[in-house]
Amino acid sequence: MSEFDSLDWVDTVDGALQPGDWPASLMRNSQAFQAREARLASVMVPVFWHQGGWHVLYIRRCEREGDRHSGQVAFPGGGRDAADADTVVTALREAHEEIALDPADVTVVGALADYHTVSNYIVTPVVAIVPWPYAYQPQPTEVDRIFSIPLAWLAERRNVEVRERRYRPDDDPSLRALKLKVVYFNQYDGELLWGATARMTIAFLKSLNDGQTRLVRPA
Asked: Could you tell me the pTM of the whole model?
């Protein structure tokens, strides 16, 4: 029996698997999204094997005034540079900059579907097996903490819920009454995984359940 056989619930939770912070139909019709070109970004979904199970590595971003993602749990990642050859290069570069992960120590195993954020980034999540233990170091101006959550814990349906949250647009007053479906995980080790990173985590779980992503234990 596969260790991911319990993941069928990911297909049944309303709003958990939509391809962005908004439902796709609203993104297509929003004046805010039509008015400006989306920016490209990548994140790394780092996974490692430790003490008989897989774990997913996360960061908590530093508190910064004016940053809408300040203090939030996230994957290492950021905007694509003009010099980046592709989305994988962006993810590897950002992980190196943010948590001191050498690209030579990373095994990329695939990518998830692009995710469109409410801040108008199109984010490609790149799944990678990373080493553990390792001398990870948080970039002091961007990353406040590096931590992990067991994949078995993330895979438990009871740890996930979808809540409605009122959207507060900066540049599209017609959407002020809109309620968005937002994914939240229960707190783990004092950290709250929610929003885009939570939904990308569920997309990762689905890719495991569907067999699109396969994790091979290190030798």
From this structure: 0.91
